[in-house]
Specification:
- With 101 residues, the protein is mostly helical.
- It is built from 3 helices and 2 strands.
- It has a two-stranded antiparallel ribbon with strand order 1-2.
- The longest helix is centred in the middle third of the chain and has 52 residues.
Length: 101
C-alpha cells in the first residue's frame, strides 16, 4: 500500500512575514532618496521662478529706464486711485498679458 502525501501550494505565515519585512526594509532605504529628489525638484522650480522675476525686472528696466516701483498709483476713470504693486507691473514681462488685462 502506497501512501501519497499531497502538499498544498502556498506560502507559510513565516515566509509571508519574511517577505513583508524585506519589502519594508527596501521601502525604508528608498524613502530618503525619493525625499531628497523631491526637495531638489522644488528648489530648482523656486530658482527658476526667481530667475524669471529677475529677467522680467530687467526687461521692465530696459523698456522704461528704471526698475519697477514698490507701488504705482493709477487714476481711475470714475475718480480715485488704484494701487498696483511691482509684481503686477511685471506681469506683461513674464508673458502674463491676459492676467495683466
Amino acid at each position: 500500500m502506497t501512501v501519497v502525501f499531497w502538499r498544498r501550494g502556498g506560502a507559510s505565515l513565516v515566509e509571508l512575514l519574511a517577505c513583508i519585512g524585506i519589502i519594508g526594509i527596501l521601502v525604508g532605504l528608498a524613502l530618503p532618496a525619493v525625499q531628497s529628489a523631491r526637495e531638489r525638484a522644488l528648489r530648482t522650480a523656486c530658482q527658476n521662478n526667481l530667475r524669471q522675476i529677475g529677467l522680467a525686472a530687467q526687461n521692465y528696466a530696459d523698456a522704461r529706464g528704471t526698475l519697477p516701483p514698490a507701488y504705482a498709483h493709477e487714476r481711475r476713470q470714475g475718480g480715485g486711485y488704484k494701487s498696483i504693486s511691482w509684481g503686477t507691473l511685471l506681469l506683461p514681462y513674464i508673458e502674463q498679458d491676459g492676467l495683466w488685462q
